[in-house]
Amino acid sequence: MRLVGVDVGGTFTDLVFTDTESGRTVIHKTPTTPDDPSRGVIAGVIELCRRNGIDPGALDHLLHGTTIATNAVLEYDGAVAGMVTTEGYRDILHIGRHQRPQHYSIMQEIPWQERPLVRRRHRKTVRERLIPPRGEVLEPLDEEAVREAARSLKAEGVEAVAVCFLFSYLDRRHENRAREIILEECPGCFVTTSSSVAQQFREFERFTTAAMNAFIGPKVRTYVDRLERNMGESGIGADLHVMGSNGGVATAKMVAEKPILTLLSGPAAGVLGGAWSGALSGFDNLITFDVGGTSADIGTVVGGAFAEATARDTWIGGYPVLAPMIDIHTIGAGGGSIAYVDAGGGFRVGPRSAGARPGPAAYGHGGDKPTVTDAHVVLGRLDPENFLGGEMALNVDAATGVMERLAGGLGMGLHETASGVLTILNANMANAIRSRTVQKGLDPRDFTLVAFGGAGPLHAAEVAALLGIPRVIVPHYPGITSAVGLLTSDLKYDAVRTEFQIGSAVDCERLNRDFAAMEAEISGQFREDRVDPAAVAFLRSGDLRYVGQGYELRIAFPAGTITQQAMAAVLDAFTAAHEAEYGHAFEGSEIEVVNIRVAGVGRIPKIGTPAPPEGGSLAAATASVRMCHFPVKGTIRPLETPFLKREALPLQTPIKGPAVILQTDTTTVVPQGSSLIADGKGNLIISVGETV
Amino acid sequence: MTLELTPPPATDTGRTVDQVTVSVIQGALENIAVEMGYRLMRMSYSSIIRESEDFGAGLVDASGRGLAESAQSTPLQSGPIPGYIRGILKIMAERGEEIRPGDVIMHNDAYSGASHGPDVAFVVPIFHGERLVAFAATTAHHLDIGALTPGSCGIVDAIDAYAEGLQLRAIKVYDAGQRVAPVWQILRDNIRISDLVVGDMEAQIAAARIGAKRYLELVERYGVETMEAAAEAAMDHAERLMRQAIARLPDGVYTATTHIDGYEDSSNPSHKALPLVVTLRVAGDEIEVDLTGTAPQVPDRPINMPLVGTVDIAIWLTIRSVLLDTAVYGHIPVNDGLTRPIRIKAPRGCLANPIYPAPTIARFCPGNQLADTVMKALAQAAPTQVSGGIGNLKVIAFSGFRGEKHWVHMEIFEGAYGGRYGRDGMDAVDTLYANTRNNPIEDIETHLPLRVARYELRENACGAGKWRGGFGSVREFAYLSDGAASVEGEGHCFDPWGLVGGGHGASAQLRLVREDGEQTPLPSKVPHKRIGTGERLRCVGPAGGGYGDPLERDPSKVLDDVLDGLISEDIAERDYGVVILEDRVDVAATAARREARIAAG
Q1: Which of A9, A116, A204, B176 is least surrounded by CB atoms within 10 angstroms?
Q2: How is residue A56 annotated by DSSP?
Q3: Which of A114-118, A468-472, B104-108, B330-334 is least confident?
């Protein structure tokens, strides 16, 4: 099969082509076209094919990572959305959990009040009410009121509608019927129901998810339709699949209905790419570390499987979202992060960033704030003539100038200040990684850090040292890891049901019925996608907690018929997981099965193992030897440091730090005390030594 | 006699540490506090902790000075932690009792640093070798603490501290690593729904122990001396930030008064309409907060406010939120240094500095009103950094029996903020020192014999202004079986204040609605009251005060509120002089109406 992965970033659209039969892989980069990213995608695919003699008509799958949904939320640029909801509950979306985002602030903004996904005027209420535990009908649906609401919304110019009824996760019929009526009144309108986007309890979060789906729906639908059409018109024969936040891809049709599934499209592909790179060298406990100009994305992969965030930890743009997402933690720390002295004389780095424009002072675009990149330049770790393969010359004087100003404010030396900027940033990143590992009972010493993005490999070894992580991997193409990750994905669809069943008295019949219904639902979806049933696998899990608790832990459920015996094993697994995650278990307390879940995975061909690189020699690799500053036992010392070209490194030959490895899309720093080898799989592997 | 509350003086250790290390250690300490909070919240059983987030977690140095607090906790829980520790240190010194490795100390004495009785702290001393270097502590609001009626809020008829439930004064629940079984038995025997409460206490201990473990890991890395020097530097840094912020205020004396309802239905005049008076004396980079003029304590009703644990937190919280607003200044780590330039003066025997055993268990809403009064005084010095008067809160303990077992559920009812310079007030949120969360309707109804019959914004009531106050909420709870309610609230009798020409907000209401629809108004404080099946409580939340002249409000914003159904066209015309015709602003009529209003003065 011939696959092409296309990841659209802020500046560049990255493309990777692979032929799964011949094993041939080529990469390409083209500028992103922000007004309509599909133009860049098409242009990139056509360019890639032309340059490499590939017939665009013979491509099988185009796997796409897109930020179109994310940007619509972050920029608050979506459709005029409406809502039809249960009478008496018009403002669930506005009141939220009645908590302010900030404790200590009078002037703060509350995102869901300041930037409502559905304005109050477009929130219509109708009589209907379900009640727990089974979704009994307390008040039948007033169909005429739904019809009237639909007509009003149409007259108000609404382009998308979310149907949000209380307890709809117990019985979807009221929501589905309302949707039908709205579509009768407003054909062509984008209509979504809360139970179809997230069939689980917690009304504010579920309604917000549905409202967000409506808010971004028309835009994403238009984008996907246009991209598919343009692909056809440009002679690109591939099926379009879009990367979801859950770490799998979905069909264009699915994404056009549930764009909410793609909010973490790009970062999720990054975690997959990191996992793939680690696996090449035989490592499957990984922390992925994707650092760009403004932020660092951190993911964890345990035993080759990525972690999924719990439903209470998934937010975007300040709004909660109940959608399955890879657990990715983002912090404001990157190459453009600005260092400053605060009003109290404290030394701070980030989260504010100079971005790409004006960018760091060293870029010479008028940036006048000292950034992390400037600190690297001052310390000599970035070669001004060899940055990004020599595409951009760095202005050392400008970097030194801003860093001297900062040093003056702190009363510190120039190199101590620059080194301090890195130390503080690295500590912030290490804290972020700690919160995803140590805090959840994972020991970072059992992990390998996979560093990518433009700035990841600059910091990875020092961050790893802070955490006791023994090893860092820098993938072959650190700048396009997300695009590579696209080519490692499977089709993946999720289903969830809220159960609220007590462990000791579980109604197994009900569990089996619900699991079967979810699997049938997903199978139907795969049939529509023409996926061979033999390539489909189901993964079952449940969200469990002690009765009374409010946070659940995700526990695997076995396939087949769930018996009392199987349930007992699940409950034991919960107790063990609770002990591991919190350091404590409440023996003898009742356990509640809150939700059950099925993830359906439809396997599709993937990128293969790349051809082994040809080794070079140290002499051939050495571009220059320069003086770089590194901390050695608490003082900053200039050390003679070889700058080596990655493509010419000798294989399996340890290179002692300090050393700097050059390649077009990133720079890797090997500090004093660490060493590096280029392995036979295309990865650089740093053995992390003690630092500080 | 006046008690002056001044924080302990900074100790000069003479050690120095570089600023990079200070920054790194401070970040690590916060990370530990966050981890403690994370674990506590996720492990705990009661919705008041895990949903409402009414808990705290923090690290404190060996002398009782705060080092770091969990970002994900409520300020009224994390803020008092250092005070708890100082109270414990004092009590144990008086008793001649020693703190030893392996101890876990429980404490809730409102006259020795605790915020009030239900907020029980569990404290783990951290030893490096033989030396006590710090404390890791968690606090949490417990569902029941053995007071006269079920639940731990709405105990509004407790006549003294003894009626409020168990008084736990620096009690070791682990003694040098050994579980002190009799103490746990006393807890189990004297607390209703003790399975839940004791489970939450175990979670608190587990979280505090993790904090201690992590702190020691940090000590291993940096050494005690460096850690201590970094802590001193971080506190000095926070102190400088606060001093600079205060120095930007014009020197002067700023006084404000507000009132609490107290017991509006009481026949005793000293139980109701009680003044809270705040005088700020700003001189250079320091503020004195003088509460002289505040009503005398109510000796037999629990609305007195512990000076350490409630009053101090209300004052610090407000000054900090206004002068070092996170939205303006970014994240500022919380530690002891922030409070050093602030001196609190409260006459002994007043509501804000009661004398033992005056009861304090229902101090939550009075304390938030005090925070609002501090803001009202600050408004004179920093009018563009405050909001108009806030709508205060209400807590209800719902309870009953399921079979032979108690059930208790506590819910906090939101208020609203006043208008702000350049921005309308926040609608239907927890206010000032409280920042808890409501419980999902779908969770409540699944687990309790309650139905949330309505949850919406309260229309046609808010403080008019160039930037209007926030809207309150209306929330109704229906009982599906016989039960009871205990209510502690405020803000029924006094409207939130307007600012710079803004209108006042709207006060709160509470009604008991019978099945036939007949409504009975209830006061803001209701001791344990039986509620029958089918009856409901309707809580009408307060709305914040307006900011600036309503006639200066952008007419298109008035139109927005009308189109959103928040205010009627009549109110648009009456309060704002905006005439709306067929969903549009009638520009000419509006100009004429506004001019006439201005001419009429």
Answers
A1: B176
A2: G
A3: B330-334
| Nearest Cβ partner for A105 among B325, B453, B454 | B325
Q: Please give the helix or strand (H or E) that residue A6 lies within, else none.
A: strand A2-8
Enter the tokens of residue A364: 């010479």
> B30-53 pLDDT, tens per residue?
999 999 998 898 888 887 887 778
Q: Which amino acid is at A300?
A: T
**Does the distance separating the beta carbons of A95 and B457 come in below 8 Å?**
yes
With beta carbons under 8 A apart, name residues in chain B contacting A88: 453-456
Question: What's the average model confidence in pLDDT over B344-369?
Answer: 98
A681: pLDDT strictly greater than 50: yes
Say whether residue B38 is in contact with chain A using an 8 A CB cutoff.
yes
Measured between beta carbons, the chain B residues lying within 8 angstroms of A91 are 428, 455-457, 473
- Report the C-alpha gap between B310 and B109 in whole angstroms: 12
Please list, residue by residue across A622-639, b when 16 or more beta carbons sit within 10 angstroms of its beta carbon and e when fewer do.
ebeebebbbbbeeebeeb
Q: Please tell me the distance from the alpha carbon of residue A425 to that of residue A347, in angstroms, as a whole number.
A: 11
Q: How many CA atoms lie within 13 A of B327 on its CB side?
A: 16
Contact A69, A79 (CB under 8 A): no
d(C-alpha A77, C-alpha A681), whole Å: 44
Alpha-carbon gap, residue B179 to B176, rounded angstroms: 9
Tell me if chain A has a CB within 8 Å of the CB of B40: no
Q: How many CB atoms lie within 10 A of CB B11?
A: 11
B377 closest CA partner among B305, B260, B290: B290
CA A412 – CA A146 distance, rounded (Å): 68
Digit-coded pLDDT (tens) for B123-142: 999 999 999 999 999 999 99
Flag if B473 and A105 touch (Cβ within 8 Å): no
Instruction: Tell me the CA end-to-end span of chain A in Å, nearest whole number.
Output: 49
Q: DSSP letters along A268-298, please?
A: HHHHHHHHHHHHHTT--SEEEEEE-SS-EEE
Q: Report the residue of A80, A97, A104, A130 to disrupt the B interface, i.e. the one with the largest count of B CBs within 10 Å.
A: A104
Average pLDDT over residues A352-365: 88
Task: Please check the confidence at residue B4 and state whether its pLDDT lies above 70.
Answer: no
CA A177 to chain CA mean position, Å: 34
B 544-573 near A (Cβ less than 8 A):
563-566
Q: What is the C-alpha separation between A647 and A678, in angstroms, rounded?
A: 10
B317 touches chain A (CB under 8 A): yes
pLDDT of residue A31: 86
Query: Cβ(A337)–Cβ(A429) under 8 Å?
Result: no
Give the residue-averaged pLDDT of B433-455: 94
DSSP string, A588-638: T--EEEEEEEEEEEE------PPPPPPP--HHHHEEEEEEEEEEETTEEEE
Question: Searching chain B, which residue's CA lies closest to the CA of residue A592?
Answer: B447
Which of A93, A107, A439, A553 has the highest number of chain B CBs within 10 A, making it the mutation to test binding with B? A107
Which sign, positive or negative, has the C-alpha torsion A529, A532, A533, A539? negative
The encoded tokens of residue A53 equal 């003699």
User: What single-letter DSSP state applies at residue A413?
Assistant: -
Q: Which of A167-181, A291-305, B56-70 has the lowest mean pLDDT?
A: A291-305
Four-CA torsion B33, B39, B45, B47, nearest 10 degrees: 50
Q: In whole angstroms, what is the distance from residue B10 CA to residue A458 CA?
A: 40
Q: Which residues contact B134 (CB under 8 A, 6 or more apart)?
A: B59, B60, B61, B62, B67, B126, B215
Tell me: ipTM over 0.90.
Answer: yes
The pair of structure tokens assigned to A427 is 């500590």
